[in-house]
Each structure stands twice: as structure tokens, then as C-alpha cells.
Amino acid sequence: MLNFVPEKMFFTKGAGVHKDRLASFEMALRQAGIQRCNLVNVSSIFPPNCHILQVSHGRKMLKPGQITFTVMARIDTNEPSRLISAAIGLVLPKDHNGYGYLSEHHSFGETAKKAGDYAEDLAATMLATTLGIKFNPNIAWDARKKVYQASGKIFKTTNICQSAEGDKNGLWTTVLSAAVFVA
Predict the structure, then answer these.
(1) Could you give the number of structural domains in the chain?
(2) Which domain holds residue 146?
(3) 167: closest CA among 80, 85, 86?
(4) Is 2 part of a structural domain of the chain?
(5) CA–CA separation, 50 and 27 (whole Å)
(6) Is the pTM here over 0.70, yes or no?
(7) Please, are residues 72 and 44 in contact by the beta-carbon 8 Å criterion?
(8) In three state form, how does the secondary structure of the chain look?
(9) Looking at the domain assignment, is residue 144 inside a domain?
(10) What is the pLDDT of residues 43-89, one digit of tens each?
């Protein structure tokens, strides 16, 4: 049984355009710098005591063919000018021995700011409910973020998002954002 708990992670993102859908995804992976790996999508837990690396440092740790665990948001379109966004949200608890949450969000018609905020809100809401933080789910994200931070239990929230408009000639356009775990 695999007992791997990542100690490091980095964020990356990319966009790709190609006549073939799969090749468009490959182009996005290349821009993100993770095309050489065998990617395995995992769910949304940010491990305790995991360190966030700069993307350039994290990419250097990857080897061709390596099995690499990611939390990835990905979306594509071949509709000209259609806005697409893929975002990963992250929330970290104040207690570094506790776990955080990562969330994926992929959407049509949302700006990078809106999609990124949504992913960040989703991750923060998951942690807040786990920690028993009382909040009104009907208030805006900016107001809830202040409640979460005032609780003293949440240390940091952030997101990464890639957006693009579908190619004007109808070629496949793919965007992705990923949290990549490394040993």
C-alpha cells in the first residue's frame, strides 16, 4: 500500500491551442511545464506541513515519466471567442500540523478573477466547515474571507487561474491550472 504524503507542492498553469483536442491539452501541459510526467489526479487535501515552492524550483524536481500527483482544473472549447477558465483554490489552516484544502473550478464565461475567487472561496468554505467556523453562506466572498481570517483558525487563502478565449478559427483551446505534488 502506498503511504506517500507530499512534503512539497507548486502551482502552475497553461493554455494551448491545436486542431486536435488532445494536442491542445498537450500544449497547455507544455506551457505549464508538466508535460513530461504521468499525471494522476487526486482530490482536495493539502497535506500538513507541506511547503509551497516557486514554480521554477518545483518543475526542476520533475523527471520524465515520473508518476506525479496533481489537483488539476481543466476545460476546453472549440467555440470561437468562448471564454474559459480553470482555477485551483487553496486554504491553509493556522495550525501547520492540520491539513488544508485545494479546490478545482472550471467554467465558461467567467473571467480569471471571478473563477479564481470562486475556487478560493470553495476551498475556504470546505476548511471553515471542517473547523466549525460559523459563517453566513449567503454573504459575498470578500465578507466571508474576513470572517474566516478573524476566526484565528485560517492562515492563508489564495488561488491560481488560467483563462483564455476560444480560438477565433474554431481550433481547440484548453486551459488548466494545477497544484503539483513533489517528493
Answers:
(1) 1
(2) 8-182
(3) 80
(4) no
(5) 29
(6) yes
(7) no
(8) CCCCCCCEEEEEEEEEEECCHHHHHHHHHHHHCCCCCEEEECCCEECCCCEEECHHHHHHCCCCCCEEEEEEEEEEECCCCCEEEEEEEEEEECCCCCCEEEEEEEEECCCHHHHHHHHHHHHHHHHHHHHCCCCCCCCCHHHHHHHHHHCCCEEEEEEEEEEEECCCCCCEEEEEEEEEEEC
(9) yes
(10) 999 999 999 999 999 999 999 999 999 999 999 999 999 999 999 99
In a domain, 133, yes or no: yes
Asked whether residue 1 is assigned to any structural domain, the reply reads no
Look up residue 23 and give its amino acid: A
CATH number of the CATH domain containing 67 = 3.50.20.10
- Residue identified by cell 476545460 is 75
- The three cell numbers of residue 80 are 470561437
Q: Cell digits for 147? A: 470572517
